[in-house]
Amino acid sequence: MNPYQIAIALWTLVIKEIKRFTRIWPQTLLPPSITMTMYFIIFGNLIGSRIGEMDGYSYMDFIVPGLIMMAVITNSYSNVASSFFSNKFQRSVEEMMVSPMPNWVILSGFVLGGMARGLGVGLIVTVVSLFFTRLSVAHPVLTVLVVVLTAALFAIGGFINALLGKKFDDISIVPTFILTPLTYLGGVFYSISLLPEFWQGVSMLNPILYMVNVFRYGFLGVSDIPVGWALAAIFTFIVVLFGVALWMLERGKGIRS
């Protein structure tokens, strides 16, 4: 395939993925906004008024970046996991793999589609947060960079989950038992400086902590982790997981019997 044909194939895949989740927006876009509204009301207004300040900011201002990031992570991941597994279950993935389309285009198409949903939901949650607080962005470029990279990382993770899954229940195991606990323990609702030294060290093993802290630094200018280290970790995760996902796809892991 020449570059023009590759671009058309990639664009077609991305548009197909975007149409997929926008067509069923009451299931894909509306629930996250309602859930996050509940978080803003319960944790931000009710509990936050009793907690007071966190790292020099009101508790509502402190948790808003984390909640936006949580929405981006879960939706980027779940979109690719469910979409690619459905294609695998219906055997339509095999048609793509026997076509002249390179495997990296297939992977990139699904990942970009997942990123679109994650970033779209993140934007909706950001708009919702404006009803509860006034947002100020200290580092706009860094904020956009880290949210895009995070969406890409977890979209790739969802792709790997879909490849390994053998039945529909398998694509909910990782989000339920791994992704959700890591997200809640990733500094969304608290600063790790409040933890004992031992648990601070344990928290450093959580990759989501790096993403939440860099994103919060983009908004508020405060972070529990050096921003350079966090960005390096995110880039490393993306490169490694993309390589693993492409290797699995080229060998037909979870597709060919």
Task: Describe the 3D structure.
The chain has a two-stranded antiparallel sheet with strand order 1-2. It is globular and about 60 Å long. The protein has helices at 3-23, 25-28, 30-51, 59-89, 92-97, 103-129, 140-164, 170-184, 197-203, 207-220, 227-250, and strands at residues 53-54, 57-58. The chain is built from 11 helices and 2 strands; from the N terminus they run αααββαααααααα. It is mainly alpha-helical. Helix 1 (3-23) crosses helix 6 (103-129) and helix 3 (30-51) crosses helix 6. Helix content is 76%, strand content 2%. The protein starts with a helix and ends in a 7-residue tail after the last helix. The model has no long low-confidence stretch (mean pLDDT 89). Residues 23-252 form the ABC transmembrane type-2 domain. InterPro entries: ABC-2_transport_permease, ABC2_TM, ABC2_TM_bact-type, ABC_2_transport. It is a multi-pass membrane protein. It is found in: Cell inner membrane; Membrane. Belongs to the ABC-2 integral membrane protein family.
Average pLDDT number: 89
Total strand segments? 2
For the biggest sheet, the summary is: 2 strands, antiparallel
**Major beta sheet, strand line-up:** 1-2
Strand content: under 5%
Using only C-alpha atoms, the radius of gyration works out to 19 Å
Order of helices and strands: HHHEEHHHHHHHH
How do you describe this structure in short?
This protein is mostly helical.
